Amino acid sequence: MKYYSTRNRNEPVNFAEAALTGLAPDGGLFVPGEIPSFPAAVKSSLGTMDFRDIALETIRPYVREDIPDAVLADLIQSAYPFGAPLVEAGDRLVLELFHGPTAAFKDFGARFMARAFSYLRRHEDRPLRILVATSGDTGGAVADGFFGVEGISVTVLYPRGRVTPLQERQIAALGGNIDALAVEGSFDDCQALVKAAFADEALRKRLVLSSANSINVARLIPQAVYYAAASGRAFAGLVDGDGAATPRIPGSGPAARSRMKGREPVMAVPSGNFGNLTAGLYAKEMGAPIAFFIAATNINKTVPDYLESGVYEARTSQATISNAMDVGAPSNFERMAAHWSWETMRFLVRGASVTDGETRETIERVHQDHGYYLDPHGAVGLKAADLLAGALGGAGPLAVLATAHPAKFSETVEPLTGPVPVPDSLRRVMDREPRSRVIPADSGVLRELL
Ligand SMILES: *Cc1c(COP(=O)(O)O)cnc(C)c1O
């Protein structure tokens, strides 16, 4: 597979280079030259295959020239001791993406990326510095994924005071090869600082830099896996038993199975930087049985507005209770636009934006009606689907991606639902002390620190 910059189709690179450089030298994002298709035999058995086998089939064509199959299989086994159960909450399906160590979907991308980097750099002796800007969950997932990985250090930049105490601990309490910087500014400022560091020729001569944001293809591609797995299961008329960490009131069993079999699900994706949704589009292009997507945003609705008007207008982000989606200038939009025209995108993706008030109402209602605890991001997804319900008409079953465990956002969720069951992984983190350095949103200061 060849990869190209979104800004230049003339200089192909291989997967290793696209992954290890992160951002293309011209400032573009790497995209695969083509989106492969699942072999027919795989496509027809997605519903019953093991998650790790689906991961192998999904990721392999993108990395084949750089990672041998046997190595890839090992990477996947080690990255995903957990899966992504598809459970029922009333007549909706919830794809639970929070069963990994940091209890958010970013574990899927970050854990694969860390292992891929380690393998791809096995003959290098210069240390690698990963720079990552986070609005909350990326930092924890990347820090956890890379913690203790030899020859790689990580600097995480997060907006001071705009992440939850738990997120801050996941980012800043590991120590070791993980540095945490609390930036006086917004997530967009953090992202701008990282971009400035990458554009700094002098700095890049002294340090081997890479990114771990959702702009990195090595994080993006493994996120296609759970779309293939979940849509395959829904299409086969199957759902999973509740997982151990499923935040449900005991005894509140699922409603009668809706007539799902043989119908492609609509997938509602709570979105910020649009890495998750882009990966979903890859999965659909590969042949996963997905009808279309709902781009669910909070009031930072740059993409829903674009889908409506055809005009892309980046904005300053506004703070909300679904803070991992407080993004006014989604970095993966450039990648989506490189693959699909506005006309095509409107066909593949419907947009809806949700207020904090609606998000709270949804958390409360779903808990009351179904005994299921949604986090604010998943609630945005479900509400967006409700808002579009009229337009969905006879579409297939609706699957909402629950991108974080509600216990990560207990400050918001518990006043609406009462105490939320806390998974063991989160319990352990809360006992740690965060240690981060506060810096102004100034690229000169970052350069000095690095
Ligand atoms: C990062 C994140 C999102 C947004 O994902 P994108 O890929 O940036 O669109 C949604 N929910 C949670 C919990 C997140 O951590």
Topology:
Elements: E1 3-5, E2 8-13, H1 15-21, E3 30-32, H2 40-43, H3 51-63, H4 69-79, E4 86-89, E5 92-96, H5 106-120, E6 128-133, H6 137-146, E7 152-159, H7 165-172, E8 178-184, H8 187-199, H9 201-206, E9 208-211, H10 217-220, H11 224-235, E10 266-270, H12 275-286, E11 293-297, H13 302-309, H14 333-339, H15 342-348, E12 349-353, H16 356-370, H17 376-387, H18 389-392, E13 398-402, H19 410-417, H20 424-430, E14 437-440, H21 443-449
Parallel strand pairs: 5-13, 6-7, 6-9, 7-8, 8-14, 10-11, 10-13, 11-12
Antiparallel strand pairs: 1-2, 1-3, 4-5
The structure holds pyridoxal-5'-phosphate.
Provide structural commentary:
Helix content is 42%, strand content 16%. The chain is α/β, with parallel strands linked by helices and 450 residues long. It has a domain at 72-105 and 217-427: Rossmann fold, CATH 3.40.50. A six-stranded mixed sheet has the order 4-5-13-10-11-12, with helices on both faces. Helix 3 packs across helix 4, helix 5 (106-120) runs parallel beside helix 6 (137-146) and helix 11 crosses helix 12 (275-286). The protein is globular and about 60 Å long. Pyridoxal-5'-phosphate (PLP) binds next to helix 6 and helix 12.
